[in-house]
Amino acid sequence: MQDGLFISFEGIDGAGKSSHIDGLAEALRAQGRAVLLTREPGGTPLAEKLRTLLLHDAMDPLTESLLVFAARRDHLQQVIEPALARGEVVLCDRFTDATFAYQGAGRGFDLRLLAALEAWVQDTGEGRVRQPDLTFWFDLPPEVAAQRLAGSRAPDRFEAQPEAFFRRVASGYAARAAAAPARFVRIDANLPRPAVAQQVQAAMARRTGPAGGAP
Ligand code: TYD
């Protein structure tokens, strides 16, 4: 059995990661890997209910952070850890870097408290803190993201934030990437879609070899 592989996808709203997640899933399946597609907040019935609250109900940043991590705990236990144990590739649309970027840098919430919650919630029970093996960071200037989002569907509580919020979120991602350079792959999302897809495929091949095996 191949080792499980945990891959997350990050970036500010409007960075355009969704279609590339689907493309990578297809490529990996074509190579014979079992792929599980999931997202945060969400990925389980309970976590999807919490997602609805997070995206639409007003709350303070501590409540927001606790709900994000509560959803993450359920998602890890019910879905992510079992899939990794089965040797699958887990492709997760956002994970904890989003919490540091949005709640931490965006809302200005205490990063030490977020780090404590991260260690607590992502404890594998074997003295390890679960982290993605690889994180694709779709980096796009906030003003370009704002243009892409303008006029699209009705914005949720995060998408409705001003550009200054997304500048802070983007700097939060940059800080997380700088702190974990071996895990992060920066994707220049300000290019035409085929060029972005090519960066994703190339980075994946560098990490896992053409057959999508263990890193
Ligand atoms: P997103 O992943 O962009 O989904 P969609 O493409 O359907 O809009 O939406 C999730 C939102 O949740 C996004 O604005 C970022 C926010 N978020 C946080 O604030 N903290 C988190 O920890 C996570 C995972 C997401």
Outline the structure in words.
This protein has 215 residues and is α/β, with parallel strands linked by helices. 53% of the residues lie in helices and 13% in strands. The chain has a single domain (5-208), classed as 3-Layer(aba) Sandwich (Rossmann fold), CATH 3.40.50.300. The protein has helices at 18-30, 45-56, 61-85, 96-106, 111-121, 142-149, 163-179, 193-208; strands at residues 5-10, 35-39, 89-93, 134-139, 184-188. The chain has a five-stranded parallel beta sheet with strand order 2-3-1-4-5, sandwiched between helices. Helix 2 (45-56) packs antiparallel against helix 3 and helix 3 runs parallel beside helix 5 (111-121). It is globular and about 45 Å long. The protein starts with a strand and ends in a 7-residue tail after the last helix. The model has no long low-confidence stretch (mean pLDDT 95). Bound molecules: thymidine-5'-diphosphate. The site of thymidine-5'-diphosphate has 12 residues, from helix 4.
**Reading side by side through the largest sheet, how are the strands ordered?**
2-3-1-4-5
Low-confidence parts: none
Give the termini distance in whole angstroms. Answer: 14 Å
Order of helices and strands: EHEHHEHHEHHEH
Rg calculated over all Cα atoms = 17 Å
Helices, strands, pairings?
Elements: E1 5-10, H1 18-30, E2 35-39, H2 45-56, H3 61-85, E3 89-93, H4 96-106, H5 111-121, E4 134-139, H6 142-149, H7 163-179, E5 184-188, H8 193-208
Helix pairs in contact: 1-8, 2-3, 3-5, 4-7
The structure holds thymidine-5'-diphosphate.
The site of thymidine-5'-diphosphate has 12 residues, from α4.
